[in-house]
Amino acid sequence: MDMFDWLGSLRDVINSSLDSSQMPFPFDSSICYKWREGLEFGRSKERILYTSCMYPLGPIIRLAVDKLEGFSATGGGIRGRLAALGAKAFGGLLLKPSREEVDRAANVLRSIYRVLRASGVEFGILDEEPYSGALLYELGLVDDFAAYARRVYESLKSNGVREIITTDPHTQYVLEMAYPRYVQGFDIKVTSYLDLIDRSKVRAKPGDYVVHDSCIYARHLAKYRTVRELLSGAHLVEDPAITGKDASQCCGGPIESTYPSLAKAVAANRVRNLSKLSSRVIVECPICYANLKRASEEAGIPLEFHDLAEVLEVA
User: What residue numbers bound the domain in which 259 lies?
Assistant: First the structure.
């Protein structure tokens, strides 16, 4: 019952933040748009590049997990009740990632922008992007997700959006697979940026890497082969037991919001296995990056983490 109390309090925090800022946690949402500085976009909003602020949210979620652990989210008895009180207090905090983390998130999104433009893909942007609601869905809060998704859909339609290009697996999944189930009449085309890259215009930087696949991309959205085709110019160190489509392991997300200690154990195990193949790891998701980087630091396993977009360059 204590965990249900905790989840209820976490739900209150997320919904309150979504109501006030259309973001799942309290932070300065201006960091969501830092990547746009100095870039040009099409005027039309029929086709937009939609980030859902997921890359800046990666370090924000990591900070949130640290706070959750401090409130003993998974403890029983009185600890569980104190955790619920902690969640309500946590909702009033303003989470602040480091300047380095903000800059890195911006650089990844700029890399995505560059490979799309080099591929001849034209797109506009929204002045302000609402969060997709993925965390609500992944926590099993489907009623809250459905209500919020309808709000997002109405906002998108009011801006004339007819097609969305996504930049991460969580956003792609909820828009492609969940929105049509919970939003009546959902008719916006949803495409991952991975599927729009012209491979004759873009190449992978040479080097030895191991790929940590996003579970969502590899198993649910059929992007396992797509990723490897995009990285054909690099030397990928593979092991069917570690990097195989059906054998690769999770990074620990999104259970970090409810079971942070378990999420850390999952991430630590994944880091140990990846390190057997290479010290340079390619990730495809900002949540994977945050979880695995933290695990490698805490385990003292020196790994370099590169987002897929950072490994691609204009040919």
Answer: 203-314
270: in domain: yes
Domains identified in the chain, total number: 1
CATH code (residue 226): 3.40.50
Tens digits of residue pLDDT in 141-163: 999 999 999 999 999 999 999 99
| Spatial distance between the Cα atoms of 151 and 74, rounded to a whole number of angstroms | 32
**Residues comprising the chain, all counted:** 315
Dmax of the chain from CA atoms? 60
Which pTM value belongs to this model?
A: 0.92
User: Mapping DSSP to helix (H, G, I), strand (E, B) and coil, where does residue 306 land?
Assistant: strand
What is the C-alpha to C-alpha distance for residues 51 and 309, in angstroms, rounded to an integer? 14
Residue 210 lies in a domain: yes
Instruction: At 17, give phi and psi (nearest 5°).
Output: -70, -40
Considering only CA atoms, give the Rg of the chain. 19
Sign of the alpha-carbon torsion through 159, 165, 170, 173: positive
Q: Determine the pLDDT at residue 271.
A: 97
Is the pLDDT at 133 greater than 90? The verdict is: yes
Q: Are 225 and 282 in contact (CB under 8 A)?
A: no
pLDDT digits (tens, 9 = 90+) for 173-221: 999 999 999 999 999 999 999 999 999 999 999 999 999 999 999 999 9
DSSP line for 268-285: HHHHHHHHTT-SEEEES-
